[in-house]
Amino acid sequence: MLIFILTAAALVAAFAIYLFLLAPRGGARRRFAPFLAQVYAHRGEYDNVRIPENSMAAFRRAVKRGVGIELDVHLTADGEVIVFHDGTLTRMCGDDRRVEDMRASEITAMTLLGTGERIPTLKEVLALVGGRVPLIVELKGETGNTALADAAMPILENYGGAYCVESFNPLLVARYRKLAPHVMRGVLTTKFRRDGEKRGLLGYALQFMLLNFLARPDFVAARHVYGGSLPVRLCRKLGAATFAWTVKTKEEYSACRRYFDAFICENLGDLLKK
To answer: pTM score, two decimals?
Structure first.
């Protein structure tokens, strides 16, 4: 009996510690209300044929449709914040160099997928959107270097429209929390091994959101098929808003609506068609 009691007590204590590590900022869902019940265009509304992802044309198209925009930002070697997803230019520009090793003038001269569209700066995108739709700004980076947060914060603070920030890297979110605690912030999560990514123990820590205590997020953005996972459901119970990524079909949208408050989507023409 004593062993049973001690085991039960240890399990309760372990679960309490997990809840502490996982917990979002208090009152997150109430403060996050302007961003909820929204559809966001993933990397703008693009097709990667005529209109590349994270391009001015893709953002212009999303604004015209009246949907929110999710976009990605990197820091260049000379400290400029540019809007681009990958760590290298290989896929989008046919150049194997890393974004962080290049100057902004080199990067913004590149064309995307052979179109006339070029890689924009964050300042250019914000000027284009002009507060007409809400923005989700993903901070890209997998190391302990949080300089991107320091560079992006003053640019975004001078922007008059609604925006929030998110990242897979809790250190970047934690840094933004320190710099601008009033800004809505979120952590991205997925099941890395199931998605074919091997990140070792760090992957499990991010999957179970064990580092949330650093960021105290207002929302959790999870791959749409994992809305029913225990960490996501617990975060929602504790008051966090939940975002689904990346929803591509009406069937996916219908299946995940019970778990999520907002949706980062592609193929918007088909998805929103009645």
So the answer is: 0.94
